[in-house]
Amino acid sequence: MSYGDPNNPYGQPPQQPPAAPGYGYPQTPPGVPPQQGYGYPQQQPAYPGYPGGGGNMMQQSMPGLLVTARVFLFLISAVQILFAIIYLYVGAIASDAGDSGEDLGLTGMGEAGDAVAGIAIIGALIAAAFAALSITLGVKFSRGGQGVRITTVVYGALGGIVGLIGLFVGLDSGLATAIIGPLIWVTFAVIITIAPVVPSGTAWFNRPRY
């Protein structure tokens, strides 16, 4: 009995050649993994800092604590502008009072009025400069980097020190009206100081900008 006889019904069936791929099917060389077909969802590479990437998600909106600090900066700038106007008004009054005293023959009134007016003008310029700084920092929160972050922390810390001095003076006076203002000022300064330092604030100022 021969298994090689094709007419033998008990013999081993002949080996069939492997089916050839259909026309147009991409040929894959040996050792190369098969490629996914057209229309199959392709895996995208991971890029850190972008949604869907392997790194941190890029923040799209400002954290809430930074938004609060930004509002406080604008409120403080409004108060500083108000103080600048008051100082200018006081300086004008002092200058007019000194001139009136000189006209009435009061010796030294003119010099005293000019000195008070000069001090008031200097105070107005300082208040206006701080108001400009507060507004600039608040505006630059949206696009600013490490320079804005560090300046805001230093600015808030200095404002907190000034507020604490005023609070101690108010507590020593025993007047409730002398405590409320410095207490609010210290609260604003603390929020402005810690907002850029917490992880969410640090991530916001470290985010990539294009």
What does this structure look like?
The protein is mainly α. About 60% of the residues lie in helices and about 0% in strands. It has five helices and no strands. It has helices at about 65-105, 110-140, 145-175, 175-195, 200-205. Helix 1 packs antiparallel against helix 2 and helix 1 (about 65-105) crosses helix 4 (about 175-195). The longest helix is centred in the middle third of the chain and has 40 residues, at about 65-105. The radius of gyration is 39 Å and the shape is elongated. The N and C termini lie far apart (about 85 Å). Residues about 45-55 have low confidence and may be disordered.
Main traits of this protein?
210 residues; elongated
Question: Can I get a quick summary?
Answer:
With 210 residues, the chain is mainly alpha-helical. The chain has helices at 64-103, 109-140, 146-173, 177-194, 199-206.
Determine the structural class based on helices, strands and strand pairing: mainly alpha
Task: List low-confidence stretches.
Answer: 44-56
β-strand amount: under 5%
Give the overall shape, derived from the CA principal axes.
elongated
Question: How many helical stretches?
Answer: 5
Rounded to an integer, what's the Rg over CA atoms? 39 Å
Helix content: 55-70%
Order of helices and strands: HHHHH
For the secondary structure, the number of strands is: 0
Characterize the biggest β-sheet.
none
- Overall residue-averaged pLDDT value: 79
Q: Whole-Å distance between the termini?
A: 83 Å
